[in-house]
Amino acid sequence: MAELDIGALVFDVLGTLVDEPAGLRAGLRALDPSLDDAGTEPLLLLWQRHIEREQRRVLDGDRPYLAGDALDREAARLVAGAAGVDDPAAVAALALSARRLPPWPDTVAGLARLAERFPLIGLSNASRTALLGLNAHAGLRWHQALSAEDARAYKPDPEVYRLAVTVSGLPPERLLMVAAHAWDLRGAQRLGLRTAYVARPVGDPPTASDRFDLYADGLADLADQLDTRHGRKRSARG
User: Fold this and answer.
1) Are 168 and 2 in contact (CB under 8 A)?
2) pLDDT (tens digit, 9 = 90+) per residue, 106-140?
3) C-beta pairs of 144-147 under 8 Å, 24+ apart in sequence
4) Which residues is 215 bridged to in the sheet?
5) Rounded to an integer, what distance in angstroms lies between the CA atom of residue 67 and that of residue 142?
6) What is the pTM of this model?
7) What's the CA gap between 35 and 12, in Å, rounded?
8) Residues 142-147: contacts with CB within 8 Å, 24+ apart?
9) Cα separation, 157 vs 159, whole angstroms
């Protein structure tokens, strides 16, 4: 088992620490209480595809940078139109549902445990304003929360991961990027960060060709694995 000399943990937020689809489904049901699962899922997919497509257009240089909360407002207007709702207040409320996402059951306790041993850095494609709301609603504990807005880009652009390197003052190889999305971890690897995949019901699972440093079933498992690596390293020095 290879040793890891980790100085700080860098966490993806959307999907890794909070259940983004659950929060958006709640917003859709508030928009139209008559929606059942069959009606909600296509609207959720429409939202997700819009966000993914527009972030990709920004990354490809096909449109100027636009912060995540502005993309959420675009998605809300698109989805509300598809649902036949044209009330501006209802559309605004739907857009804000992207900030009211529930944490996964192990998130709050897992972050608290990991924060006893490591500086924790949140690194999200959410805007600064949206990230503040997300952190407050889900009860996320950070030593530093960074938005991709500060790089005027979106992950997996290397400039977003560079934000964590700059703030931590550590070389990339001493940062462990934690995410439920293999694409996110690949982006971090390209800048030299170490990587930990955490399995979630949503996300982007690794492929057979991916080689991440750690694979965990959840945050407790991640903490256990880091405890093992840390204990080994201390014994070797002792």
Assistant:
1) no
2) 999 999 999 999 999 999 999 999 999 999 999 99
3) 144/119, 144/120, 145/121, 146/121, 146/122, 147/68
4) 197
5) 22
6) 0.92
7) 31
8) 142/111, 143/115, 143/119, 144/119, 144/120, 145/121, 146/121, 146/122, 147/68
9) 5
